[in-house]
Amino acid sequence: MTQEAELPGKRVLVLRPDELSPDDLKMWREIRTESGAPANPFLDPAFTTAVGRVRPGTRVAVLQHDGSPVGYFPFERGSLGRGRAVGLGVSDSQGAVLRPGIRLDARRLLRACGLSSWEFDNLEAGQEAFAAHAAEELASPVVDIGEGFTRYTERLRAKSAGFLRQTLAKERRLARQVGEVRFVYDARDPAALRALMEWKSAQYRRTGRRDRFAQEWITRLVGLLGESEEPECRGLLSVLYAGGRPVAAHFGPRSRTVLSWWFPAYDRACAKYSPGLVLQLRMLRAAAADGIETVDLGSGPARYKESLKTRDLRVYEGAVVRPVPGGAAHWLAREPARAARRFVRNRPLLAGAASRALEEVGRLRDR
């Protein structure tokens, strides 16, 4: 059911993603292009539509001025009007898609959408209305390959010659000791996708973290994106084979120019060959040849990201909270835990101890 509200100078229609018209989808993309922001697949309407098929509370606020759309704000709505970014927890770029020059008051927008709060964990830079409510700024490393893979490897050698040399040596050893190495950039291999999910689930359990693939909506979302033919947001499965079997794989959404590093995993039996890094270098080469300009590695620390990145983007974590009962419920449920994570993350020794404790929990769980 369509919900209508007013903002100063704007009319707001709140729709389900499947209620957006073809003209809306076209306008959404035109506004995004006009803004000059990267063509990130997470901020394409196809991603919101896919999430809407697996998360019934997904909605889109269509902001209109003089009868024409000037912006789109996708969100998920839960109990007590508590809102969250679309695909929170797995989406690596979040925010509103606004025509340049449009200014918003975040709390007024939430009121127009019937929300008491709106939580984000990867708000993209430039979203001033929401960034003012951020609790933390995070680095999100990216790899720039728009100048070609050869130019990228020149930069990589200059920064970390040993890393590249060692990874290529491990690939040769993998071929000698396991079997012929073969890479498929755009694989249509359901068995390899199942293997990836199993490896990733085992990694989550081993490190004491929540298994994302135990959540049905995430598994279904991966399936929908894998079937998508949308050029601005479709799932890409890349697989590294050795001796005729998968040893590493990655699945993530891509647009024409941006690829998101989303779910990478590898067979632990081949860990000594670093098949994940071999896969990633092969992917970067193929992606550069396919017109990808940026590979977004996502926020969160990892040694391999530091080795591969060319620069960092800034993303933000936090929540817009209105002074209403639902907003208070959000604060009590989320902010103390967020503050504790931030306290640990900003203290390397404590963060290391916490990581080791999680791994021990994972080992005990698997016994």
UniProtKB/TrEMBL annotation:
Q: Which Pfam families match?
A: Acetyltransf_6
> Any keyword Acyltransferase?
yes
The protein depicted here goes by the name GNAT family N-acetyltransferase
InterPro entries xref list = Acyl_CoA_acyltransferase (IPR016181), BioF2-like_GNAT_dom (IPR038740)
Does the entry feature the keyword Transferase, yes or no?
Answer: yes
The Swiss-Prot or TrEMBL record annotates one GO molecular function as: acyltransferase activity
Q: Which domain of life is it from?
A: Bacteria
